[in-house]
Amino acid sequence: MVAPLSAWPWENLGAFKYLLFGPMLAQVVHSRIYEDGSNYMSSWCFHLFLLWHTRFWFFGIFSSFSNMLFINCGRRINHNGVDFNQIDLEWDWDNFLILQALMASAAYYTFPSLEGLPLWNTSGLITALILHIGVSEPLYYWVHRGFHGQFLFQNYHSLHHRSAIPQPSTAGHATFLEHLILTAIMGVPILGSCLMFNNGSLGLIYCYIVMFDLMRCLGHCNIEVIPHQLFDAFPFLRYLLYTPTYHSLHHTEMDTNFCLFMPLYDAIGNTLNSKSWELHRKISSQIGIWIRLTSQMIVRINL
Ligand SMILES: [Zn+2]
Ligand SMILES: [Zn+2]
Question: Name one GO cellular component term (predicted).
């Protein structure tokens, strides 16, 4: 028997899972045809639908980039290729996008004050940043450490770690329970600024979610794109921003580097992998274009 909430509720639907967007799409179409289009719920559904599309293609573009060996072969962290087993395993990586769209619809019905958010409010951005650093980051750190306990790891988190070579779709590859918790963690800065401090905006929701996706893709792209010179110039930045090398180390040495995006919490929790910066420097120093001529022969052109 599988552990409670480990399987996705629409696991048996296959490609028909996208029909779950049907009611949202129907709401938008109905409003455009039969109403004047100003119904806020239809516009909320429109934004959810637009956001889902944007995120889906964003992950796709990041995956394409991480597979462009002709420009990034020298910066690859793990030089092995992704095998067919991993591709099959991560086939439904986008389940969390559906879950988050459904949870956002539920949030709209639960909190009517979400109606009529302004397009932009700068103070909301600051509130969200504070809530992210002060609540979401430590919460994720402790929950992630908890998921490495024997029971939770065996029944839930091991699925994410079964992907031997991280790639952007690996970021979405986890159990239903883990993504429920991650969605709640993402929701803290958004709902906090919109509901508690009344300075949220549509722009904030778009920016926060796209930045969150960007950072998740970055950690799993298997290409070191952060130059070590950045950390040389601003040493404290290495505690505020993780790198692809940093999260890859979590996939190989699982008792270290648990943070969401900020290594500061690993430093506080004494779980920071001592090889993190040295390995990052080594990989990010490899400047040049690598060309794979045959399966055995790789030529490097120094720039
Ligand atoms: Zn983990
Ligand atoms: Zn990971």
Answer: membrane
Number of domains in the chain: 1
Q: pLDDT tens across 39-91, in order?
A: 555 588 889 989 999 999 999 999 999 999 888 888 899 988 899 999 999 99
In a domain, 16, yes or no: no
Is residue 163 situated within a structural domain?
Answer: yes
Dist. CA 16 → ligand 1 center (Å): 30
Give the distance (Å) from ligand 1 centre to CA of residue 224: 19
Question: Domain range holding 215?
Answer: 38-301
Instruction: Calculate how far, in angstroms, residue 168's C-alpha sits from the geometric centre of ligand 2.
Output: 9
Three-state DSSP class for residue 11: helix
The sign of the dihedral angle between the CA atoms of 83, 88, 92, 96 is negative
Q: Which long-range contacts (CB under 8 A, 24 or more apart) does 85-93 make?
A: 86/162, 86/163, 86/164, 86/165, 89/162, 89/163, 89/173, 90/163, 90/167, 90/169, 90/170, 90/172, 90/173, 92/8, 92/11, 92/17, 93/59, 93/169, 93/170, 93/171, 93/172, 93/173
Residue 185 lies in a domain: yes
Average pLDDT over the chain reads 91
Q: Residue 297 Cα, ligand 2 centroid: separation in angstroms?
A: 30
Residue 161: pLDDT over 80: yes
Helix then strand then coil, % of the chain, to nearest 5: 65, 5, 30
Structure confidence by residue, pLDDT tens digits, 100-136: 999 999 998 899 888 888 889 999 999 999 999 999 9
* 291 C-alpha to ligand 2 centroid (Å): 28
